[in-house]
Amino acid sequence: MGLFDRIQSRDSNPSVAKKNNVSETPNILDTSEKAKKPEIKVGFSVNERVKQPVEEFERDSTSSILDKYFVKVDDIDFDVIIEKENGVTLYKIPEITLMNTALAKFSDLDIKTIKAELSESTLQKLGQIQGYLKNYSEKNNLHLRDIEILHLSHYFYLIIGKLGLLEIPLNDSKLEEVMVNGVESPSFVFHRKYQMCETNIRLDRHEGTRVVESIAYLAGRTIDSRTPMLDAFLPDGSRVNATMSDVTLGGNTITIRKFSEDPLTIIDLINFGTFDLELAAFLWQAVEGYFGAKPANTLIVGGTGSGKTTTLNVVSMFSMYTDRLVTIEDTPELQVPLTHLIKMITRPGRPGIQGYEITMDDLIKNSLRMRPDRIFVGEVRGSEAHSLLVAMNTGHDGCSGTLHANSADEALIRLINPPMNVPKVMMSSVDFIINQQRIKRNKKTVRRILGVVEIGGSGENITKTELFKYDGISDSVVKTGICMWEEDVCQIAGITRDELMDDRINRKKVLKYMVNNNINDIRKVGDVIKQYQENPENILKNILE
């Protein structure tokens, strides 16, 4: 049974809903006399800015259009237009206007009847829905044109057993997040290129409730008046937070951080300006440990939405391809293209079931019995910090994790104080703290590495050396300090410092080659890194020919 087939099954079988702890609400599709008769709405409203069909957008708004492309939802292609209007970046789906025009020919009772009959039938394919709508139109003398039936079939296809109009942005690979702020409020999306955009999707109360409950069903969780907040992840790995109107005055809210099927790589971050070639080559060398001689332990710190997990995923690709990796997360976001990999996720507790919860701390302690070479922790928040540093102190070099903090100093303060309580004597096991933040440049939000700090010292004496620092004028990082790790790795690997620097220059050449040739697919980038680890002379010869 497919992902959304399960919603269809749940919606048409109340016993399934009860079994899955999904809250029940009055069935607005019930046409019996006993049913309540609330005001029936279409399920969305159209942003007043969207008043024209696609052709008129192209003719009248060319000067403000930033981008045009289509998003595929199953077999349906939806046009998307990104444009600037009165200083606001808009994410417009023109077909919503055409759907709205066609739906205006239906009465509320028509819409209610169609929803009920389609929900209770086996008509799930697009062609079947089109045939049903054509018959309904003829039987009720609605005189719908074929093009109107087409748009209506798209609409009902999305709202019967799926997540409604949100399916369109959720299937857009260019988006990072989809946000619903409440009833009749415009939804927003965060675009990889154009950042925060206002959409012409609005959910009414009934559709908002239906979508939230469908999300809870997919996540295998409960959301109702007793538990009005949901924090979970969907089967595809997307992270979702939802609230009911009990705690958000504007109505139900939804925030979905999409799981990327095409995750960013070091080449993407170089192109975005988050890294430059020098810093990228340094971290490649450090995380790898110069062909595994001395992998560095790192912590990536930053604020919410700063891209910490993305950077963690990127640097994890620098691991030696022969290493055994264990990733530990609340939600499965890390996508490491290595074969010797174990992915572990936490399990939230359930009321009345003692011992059901499995925490990150539990998983880290268990992973130490799996003979890992490296451990990567999605987000360090509590006692798991102590366990991670224990791993670093017991010979598991090359470990890494993310931490909410605004600087290396703040990260150290958080680590040695409750609830983390890491003893100062253990802090020297961390080699580098990478500080990544969201900043504003030219009225745009960008993600930048603001600094790399090396941690050293002995006993309770912690020393910090700033190796790289962000320079706002040049919008790049500059090297500011001498790295002790470089001396250690040279000693262990039996090489001179000049040889280490020559290797870094070679890595920069490989990275620049991938940038120049637009090699940013995660598998292809991973393959190039592996080839360099196996035979650097051979790959350098190939790229320089």
Structure write-up:
The strands form three sheets. This protein has a nine-stranded mixed beta sheet. Helix 4 (95-103) crosses helix 7 (146-159) and helix 6 packs across helix 7 (146-159). Helices cover 37% and strands 22% of the residues. The protein has 545 residues and is an alpha/beta fold. It folds into two domains: 3-257, 2-Layer Sandwich (Beta-Lactamase), CATH 3.30.450.380; 266-544, Rossmann fold, CATH 3.40.50.300.
Salient structural properties:
Beta-Lactamase; 37% helix; nine-stranded mixed β-sheet; single chain; alpha/beta; elongated; 545 residues; Rossmann fold
**What CATH architecture of the largest domain do you see?**
3-Layer(aba) Sandwich
| Alpha carbon gyration radius | 27 Å
Oligomeric state as shown? single chain
DSSP summary, beta strand count: 20
Tertiary shape: elongated
Count of spatially separate domains? 2
Strand content: 15-25%
Fraction of residues in H or I helices: 25-40%
Unreliable residue stretches: 1-63
How many alpha or pi helices?
19
CATH class of the largest domain: Alpha Beta
What's the CATH H-level superfamily name of the largest domain?
Answer: P-loop containing nucleotide triphosphate hydrolases
What is the end-to-end distance? 51 Å
The CATH topology assignment of the largest domain is Rossmann fold
Largest sheet composition: 9 strands, mixed
Short précis:
The chain is of the alpha/beta class and 545 residues long.
Topology:
Blueprint: H1 3-12, H2 14-19, E1 44-45, H3 54-60, E2 65-73, E3 76-85, E4 88-92, H4 95-103, H5 108-120, H6 126-139, H7 146-159, H8 167-170, E5 175-180, E6 188-191, E7 195-199, E8 202-203, H9 205-219, E9 229-233, E10 239-243, E11 253-257, H10 266-272, H11 277-292, E12 298-302, H12 308-316, E13 325-329, E14 341-345, H13 360-367, E15 374-377, H14 384-393, E16 400-404, H15 408-416, E17 432-441, E18 444-458, E19 461-471, E20 476-479, H16 484-493, H17 497-516, H18 522-534, H19 536-544
GO molecular function: ATP hydrolysis activity
Biased composition (Polar residues): 10-30
Region (Disordered): 1-33
